[in-house]
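Obj: model holo form, ligand = zinc ion.
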Amino acid sequence: MSYSEPMPKSKTLRSRLFKQLVNFIYKTGFTRLGQKFWSKSLTVVNYHRIDDPDQLGLDSFRPNISAHPTAFAQQMDYLGRWFNVVSLKDVVKWLNGEGCLPPYAALITFDDGYLDNYTQAYPILRQCNFPAIIFLTTGHIGTDNPFFWDLVAYSFYHTGSDHVLFPNGQERTWTNTTQRDQICKELIESLKVLPDQEKQFWVNRLPEKLGVSIHQNYFRNLMINWDQVREMHKGGIEFGGHTINHPILSRISLEQALIEIEGSKTRIEKELGEPVLSFAYPNGMSHDLNGKIENLVARAGYRAAFTLQNGPSLLREVKQNPYAIRRIFISHSHTLPRFAIETCWVNRFR
Ligand SMILES: [Zn+2]
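Output (holo structure tokens):
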């Protein structure tokens, strides 16, 4: 991934060989090998933002860009060729025992609710006539309030400083923008796992520490607003809960978690006038959720919930536990051959 320190020669060679191997597997059709034994499956792809990761002046968190619009269109074309794209409603109907899912069912999902889901992804989805589901962090929708990672990235991008203090007391310095971007990414990872108040304390002080001032309303157009949500909803896009404030649910109390889980559901239902049936766990890795949290999601009235544990799922796995459905994280560094491998059954066992 280009968002890291310059790679040592051996690593560059390894990643070049890996790329060649991926291209070879794709071109020879090996990614389709054995797929027929995997037809009763649900492949869920997960995007965050659809935009140009190399655009000049990009000052929000670059790793959150999942695909360039051109790459996204190619990926949709690939899904159309090899999968049957279904809606969340189809999945819930099937979970309720009404009807079945087609072979090689696929779901397209987006997390957080960035504006480019409306400006870039939505027109492409309409062209393909594909449904998709966007999981909204409702406390940020239609506000100027950025996610903490975008605020941190902005501060790093605009600073004239060459060092920063980490919450663990370690001072990190950089001599070029590649190092700076890598340290920014590491700081975001270390802030993610702090208790909420402590995290907020660090984030609030960061712009000043880095000598950066932020214009009021600077982040006004980063997220979608409720009118855009309603417009997309009319055009076939579904919406799900993704909490109010995006905490990692396993790191807050169960009472607080329930407020976050129910709160985003109630808000979207109020805005759309229709039940919200699905939820996506913030961060979504195995340590970010547990059985108790899954129970809260069920208690709140959701019928399905999605993690970021990698790979497609067999339909019987989804039926067994619809509150921990796997999703495949898509990155802007993925080429189409890599996308083909990511969405292949082999990826379930990686
Ligand atoms: Zn998220």
